[in-house]
User: Fold this.
Amino acid sequence: MSGKIEKVKIVNDIPYVLCEDDMNYYPLVTKDKNNGLTYTLDTKTFVYYPNLTVTNDDRYIGIWGQRRKSYLKEQKPILYMQMFDDNSLVDHLIEINEAAENMAEQLETQMVQAEGVTEELKANDQMEWVRRMNSIISRVNEIVLHDLIYV
Assistant:
């Protein structure tokens, strides 16, 4: 026997690291059977740290979803945190965005028809057409905000 102690040894494909303070070998990675978490050994301090990851949901939530998120965060923080914690926030924001876009499109179409804002008006009097369209878009935005976003 050479007298030299291995700092790392492999047993059943699992690496074990020697702690020179107590001369025991500890697995580099271990799994807690109670909670299912895996832990990695810090070889300097011989403390196990949980392998935790945070997943970012990068799906597009749109402008209406962003407005809803701001509203929830500022006006309904408890609901916001509940949805955030159970990972339903992004799904909710995407749903709201789709509903708001559909509502805005339908309202705009209805208002354009009801107020007679036509391509003919656009060709004959562009400034009047722009004024009317801006008015319609402004009203549509207010209705969507009131009915879907700020509730």
About this structure: The chain has a mean pLDDT of 92. The radius of gyration is 30 Å.
